[in-house]
Amino acid sequence: MTKAITADQLKNYQQNLDQHTGAQVAERAVTKNGILATSIDYRSKINMNPVFSIDLDTGEVANQKQSGRCWMFAALNTMRHDIHNNFKVADDFELSQSYTYFWDKLEKANYFYENVLKTADLPTSDRKVSWLMTTPQQDGGQWDMVVALIQKYGVVPQSVMPETKNSSASGEFNNTLNLKLRKDAVELRELVASKASNEEVDARKDKMLNEVYRMCAYSFGEPTRSFDFEYRDKDNNYHIDKDLTPQDFFDKYVGWNLDDYVSIINGPTDDKPYNHMYTVEMLGNVVDGRQIRHLNVDMNTFRDVAVKQLKSGESVWFGCDVGQSSDRQQGIMDTELYSKDELFDIDFSMSKAERLDYGESLMTHAMVLTGVDLVDDKPTKWKVENSWGNKVGSKGFFVMSDNWMDEYCYQVVVNKKFLPAELQEQLKEEPKVLAPWDPMGSLA
Asked: Are 233 and 86 within 8 A, CB to CB?
């Protein structure tokens, strides 16, 4: 039986407020300054002093501007760090995010079309169809998705394919592309319903992709097929490497075996036992490309592999819920940053699993771990390279408390050699398929 709020209840609430110690002071402070400014604990800034026992030299930070490409920036930044160290390029050297962005948009369109065709016999009210149409594509992604792009298309320096208005401020392009994809979904579903032949469907889809390619070329410029890489190193020596393809450039200047790098997650919900592999239905970008694969582990293992990779001198891609208990301008991520419980005299605590299960938290942003402060060989705080430019944090770098990592970090990518032998073996397991809307399928 439903119950409305009664007059007696309201009277009781008002009396309770009047009796609450400091209510008027709190009201004046919060109405004037807002909840976060009123509840901030200045001691957090003292504790989050940006000094680390392991601190990698990674050059200057990048800036994704008004786009959702953090996952792409973070991945390219980890590769840029190696180029920076191995070839002594300038501190502001970057790999082209616009290049991978172009191919991501084209591939995501194809991935969407394929999922539309797979679900064409389902009504539009079906949850999977609704999920597809809510956001046909977006800027976000995961580690395995950028790997799929690089394995197919390689990488180029930013000087070869620089940023454009649309890559740096992607809202207009995304709205326009999603309009096209939804319109195309109508046509593809109608073709299937009318029993059109596979040849007819394929021909129409090919025309749609040709149109998407044109949209991308107008918006980001057409990707280069070959180029000369010209630069001066930190010793002012001139270098030129002629007639490189994007794949050549990756092989020569990055040289990673991308199959060695694996996604490690911490998703402590009942439906995801630790030490098992997971994937997510309808999540990806490159059809027949690298599959999304996660190994779910406890936080001690999660933390340990990240520390091992940092100790080896290599930075770590990671995904988190960046908006939780953080200050963008100060560059602080700390569970003790705000004392909202004390301000309102309310217990707001939830476990990490509860936050995932009930929609309070999921992965929203990817960045790079470039340092850690170890006390008695245990992490106390982490150095984070963001991609929001150098006017936030400490010249673009953030400080993350170890407690914050426990509560709001969900994914790290490490070389599998840093995993215990039994977990390396577990990577071969056939992954359990999670629903498209599972929080572990969220895009950074």
From this structure: no
